[in-house]
Amino acid sequence: MGIGDAGDRSGELHKAKEWRLIREVPGFRNFKENGRALRLDDEAESKLLAMAEQPLKDIIQLMRDTGMRNCRELYRMRIEHLNWGKRTIFTPESKTTKGRREIVMSDRVAEILRIRSEDRKEGWVFPSRRPGKHITIGLVNKQWVRARKLAGLPEHLVLYGARHDYGPYLLQQTGNLAVVMQSMGHADVKTAMAYQHPEI
Q1: In terms of pTM, does the model score above 0.90?
Q2: Which residues contact 174 (CB under 8 A, 6 or more apart)?
């Protein structure tokens, strides 16, 4: 059971006690989250890029420069959603309703995406070896664990830390929380506000 599931299961457990299926409702203690303190910063990126294979190498750079969510947005990115005239990436599917947005390409992002797109007009930016499919979280995670180990980085540093590094950077550059929310697809201002204190 995940950390976020404990509250959802509480009612079910109380019902099980009421029906005398269990004697007592067990208590749950949430693990401390390392959260936004574990940012994939410039130093970590440099070490990882020296050790990483493709597609992980490109994914690290794209996440750091766009703040995109890896599974729902980045791995499912399609060439037809790249607007070269405006230099934006459209994300039609995301974790939240605010996740449908246009994301500005940095020079580095534009270069990576042009190379990956080649002369294709449609299809997955990160295609799988299986026809018609995009890359899977399993492949990327396997590459991530190997690269992180070779780079000598701590095990509790996760790839999502690249997104957590983007938020404080963007807020520092713009000073505008609304811009951070729009760029990262946050629906809740409380989530974005955490980037005001990235050490938390």
Answers
A1: no
A2: 180
